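Researcher: Next entry in the queue.
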Amino acid sequence: MVTTIALVVGVTGGVAGGVAYERYHGDETTPGTVVGGLGGVDTVSAPPLSAENGSIAAVAQKLLPSTVQISAEYDGQANGATGSGFVLDRQGHVVTNNHVVSSAASDDGPIEIVDQDGNRYTATLVGRSAVYDLAVLYAPGVKDLRPASLGRSAALQVGEGVVAIGSPLGLSSTVTAGIVSALHRPVTTGDTADDSSYINAVQTDAAINPGNSGGPLVNLRGQVVGVNSAIATTGGSASGEAGNIGVGFAIPIEQVRVTADQILRTGEASYPVIGAKVQTGQNDGSGAEIDEVVKGTPADDAGLEKGDIVTAVDGERVTDGIALIVAIRAHQPGETLDFTIERGSDEQVISVTLGSETG
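Model: Structure for this entry, 359 residues:
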């Protein structure tokens, strides 16, 4: 049985499915940018529910008003793609997946936000990151919607209850529940190398289907701990047209905070690089083999060589190429990481200072 990872955007024809904003405005050429990033907007982090009173019904009541449906142009067809999102702040910003709005962004097509009551708001794309599969939208009318409370995926435990909220198969305001089935799961998604994203994912068995993309994964205190992004499928394509089989993946909220902050400031997001190519087809768990080191890059400066096998990053085991990419992208440009490598019969530790690219 072949398992693939599928993006969960719904495509029509495939699966049916407070304070004046001007005070915060950043770049005049990019509507929705904010001088101070996340620090310049009003987000919420206090849990709306106590640990004792958390229930699926209570979580749904708190989060449904903060969860929206995204309708975007796809391949020239208005409203051709549907996804989900959540209200980030009181200034009118909404978080969703890049793959929900990427076609609209490429074609400068229309994007709409639909709230729980069916009200529709024309949205502007502030910025997006294909690498982390995240996007931030701006719609002035969304200022009146309740921001979702932002939690911590780092505090999650395997077996803990979570709730997924969104618009699977075009069915808005849908709630499903399950548990955290794994943490720090290295996952890659995307149809081509150009739009692939690598996620250090929260894995859940809460039902996630096409149209759930970009919606919140929420703990039982009503805090967003991840952004639903992909599902595992037993073969087939990664077009997002497969249904739930009990294995879904969410982008950790810590990464969402970092990327959203960068997008709000500049309309763009950055990600760390080392300047080396790595084999991603190996699956024997022995490590990540370096295929090529580009001259003048952090990897070259640190002394990495073709044929080196990376077995750990900062003491955390690396099993294959995807795990290495995910481990690197869980950090920020400028950080220095210790790579444990095997070179022939020798094991050594090489320190690499991460470079930066935009995407």
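Model: The CA atoms of residues 103 and 109 lie 8 Å apart.
Researcher: Noted, moving on.
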